[in-house]
Structure formats: structure tokens, C-alpha cells
Design a protein that fits this description.
alpha/beta, Quinone Oxidoreductase, Chain A, domain 1, Rossmann fold, 2 domains, six-stranded parallel sheet, globular
Length: 337
């Protein structure tokens, strides 16, 4: 089968790989669509020591079961997405329903081969059937959309007043930022602003999400004005921007991890009684809820997603790395689909 393989820093290649071997408790999928994630680009640049050369990348996907170790639980022909986090199921976090924090977790596209390929084997317990009305490309967005849903649900638990009353600032107009802004609006948030430096992406956000956009370089968001600030970038500059924009008593949700460490304004955090939250991926319950939300149209118009053939994967990575792509998400489609 053909697969996109990380070969060395700043290089991926379309190579032949052996078909996955069906293991007990697993299902073999023909991949129908796979998204390129920011973490895949992080690996592409050689910045993720957990993803080593020779690895097939990709963990945002939709596929069709072609072989299964348990036809009663997961029959052939079932269209599915799947949780790329392969958790142990028996640690304290898994038993609490916080399986995203499982210390024994593995991950598709990191500790096991990824989904930027024609076929993939996954544990049946990780698979989630896709409703008939949900096409494969939007279904492949379930993973990043679940990240937005998990972050927003955590934020709402910490907010003093309901989301519809809040002013929300989302920093970053990539896929996570766009999906977060769309979900805020779906949850009833009426005053949503997205800060994005790329003019093409700002235009796409205005058209597809229908919210206010600003260029933080030329017109930074107002200081101490927002009840919820979501940093979907996670750079030193965006962390500072998030703290500056947050009004007293508000919530700052940190999703992005572009920079792993930086100083923040601890005086503002303390004197303004801000709640600073971090989030990691999603739970299995979040992912199931996200599939249903995608099918219901809760993430709005997803026409901003760009599709390319799997064979164009190396070019897509190079274009994304060079900033030549206006779309916030590129999804690759294997010819087998």
C-alpha cells in the first residue's frame, strides 16, 4: 500500500508499505480521508522527538471497515472514524472517563503507524461509526473538532456567566481556531472575534464562520475586554496577547503548543483573578459527541477545507510549511477511496 512517510526533517515521501496485519480486537480500515494536523507539521520539521523518521504520519481520519476480528461488534462495510489515542482502559484516568490523560496511552501516527496511508488497523474499541449523512471529509475533522469541543466544554465549566453573555476571543484562525469559533456560535455565543495574521484566512473565517476578525499585528484586540480567550496557537506572543485581552474574572483556555515554554504576565493573572486552563485532546465521550455534532452541522460551513490526493501529500506538506495554503485544513484522499 502507499503511505506518507516522514523520512527526515523537512521531508516526507510517498512510499510503499506492507499492509497492516489484522490483530485480535482490531479492524482493518480502507482510509477514505485523512487530515494533516499541526502536530504532523511539527514532526515534519523535526521538532517532535516522539515521531521518528520512518513513521507513517496522520491521526485525523475516516475510513471503511474491510476486515474485522469481531464482525458482531464492527462488521465489514461500516464507515468509521476512530480515536487515535489508544488507552489502557484500566488506569484511574480511564476509569474516571478522563481517558485522554491515560499515562499508558499510545497514539496512531506516533507510537503506531498513522492514517496518511491507504489502509490502517485500529482497535475496535476506538472506532466510532459515521452517520450516513456525514461525508468522509467532514468526518475526518472529528479529531480536531473534538479538541475544540473538549476545550470549550472545560471553559464553560469555569466561566461565571453563560457563554451567550460572553465576549469571546479566539487567537489563531487555523483549523482548531475556526472550529472553536464555529462551535461557540453554535452554543449561542453572539460576540465572537478571531485574531489571525493571515489575510486570506481572515476572509475565509468571515465567510464561513460569520464572525468578526482582526489582524493582531496591526489592530490588536482590546485590552481587558473578553470573558473567554482561547489561545489556539500557543506561542509566546499569543500567550501574552491572551492574558492582555482577558478581562478581570475571565477564563483563558490554552490549546496550542507552538512554543513549549514562555513567560506570561503572572501579575495580571493574579490581580485580575483569571482562570488559566490547559487542555489535551478529548475523551472518547467528546469524540462521540463531536461526530454527532458534525452530522448536525454544529461546526457550520466546512467548505473551507481543501482536499488533495494522497499522492500529493509531500507537496501539501511543503506548501503548508511555506505558508502557501490559505485553507486552515488540508485533507488527503487516497486513490483507493
Amino acid at each position: 500500500m502507499k503511505a506518507i512517510v516522514y523520512t527526515e526533517p523537512n521531508a516526507v515521501a510517498l512510499l510503499e508499505r506492507d499492509m497492516p496485519t489484522l490483530q485480535p480486537g482490531e479492524a482493518l480500515l480502507r482510509i477514505d480521508a485523512t487530515g494533516i494536523c499541526g502536530s504532523d507539521l511539527h514532526a515534519y520539521h523535526g521538532h517532535d522527538p516522539r515521531r521518528k523518521p520512518g513513521l507513517v504520519l496522520g491521526h485525523e481520519f475516516a475510513g471503511t471497515v474491510v476486515a474485522t476480528s469481531d464482525p458482531q461488534r464492527m462488521p465489514a462495510g461500516t464507515r468509521v472514524t476512530a480515536n487515535p489515542l489508544v488507552t489502557c482502559g484500566h488506569c484511574d484516568f480511564c476509569l474516571q472517563g478522563r481517558d485522554n490523560l491515560c499515562a499508558n496511552r499510545g497514539m496512531v501516527g506516533m507510537s503506531r503507524p498513522g492514517a496518511l496511508s491507504e489502509y490502517l488497523s485500529v482497535p475496535i474499541r476506538c472506532a466510532i461509526p459515521i452517520p450516513d449523512q456525514l461525508a468522509s471529509v467532514p468526518a475526518a475533522l472529528a479529531e480536531p473538532a473534538a479538541t475544540a469541543l473538549h476545550a470549550l466544554n472545560l471553559s464553560m465549566r469555569a466561566m461565571v456567566r453563560p457563554l451567550p453573555e460572553a465576549r469571546t476571543l479566539v487567537i489563531g484562525g487555523g483549523a482548531i481556531g475556526m472550529l472553536t469559533a464555529a462551535l461557540v456560535k453554535s452554543y449561542g455565543g453572539r460576540r465572537v472575534t478571531v485574531a489571525e495574521t493571515n489575510a486570506l484566512r481572515r476572509a475565509s473565517i468571515t465567510r464561513h464562520v460569520d464572525c468578526e476578525t482582526v489582524d493582531p499585528l496591526s489592530a490588536p484586540p482590546q485590552t481587558s475586554e473578553y470573558d473567554l480567550v482561547v489561545d489556539a496557537v500557543g506561542a509566546k506572543a499569543t500567550r501574552n496577547l491572551a492574558l492582555a485581552a482577558a478581562r478581570p474574572g475571565s477564563v483563558v483556555m490554552h490549546i496550542g503548543l507552538q512554543d513549549w515554554a514562555s513567560e506570561i504576565d503572572m501579575r495580571k493573572l493574579t490581580l485580575a483573578e483569571l482562570t488559566l486552563l490547559g487542555t489535551y485532546t478529548y475523551t472518547m465521550a467528546d469524540l462521540r459527541a463531536t461526530v454527532a455534532a458534525l452530522a448536525a452541522g454544529s461546526f457550520g460551513d466546512l467548505a473551507w477545507v481543501e482536499t488533495r490526493a494522497l499522492a500529493e501529500g509531500p507537496e501539501a506538506f511543503a506548501d503548508l510549511a511555506a505558508g502557501r495554503v490559505a485553507a486552515a485544513k488540508v485533507v488527503l484522499l487516497p486513490e483507493a477511496a
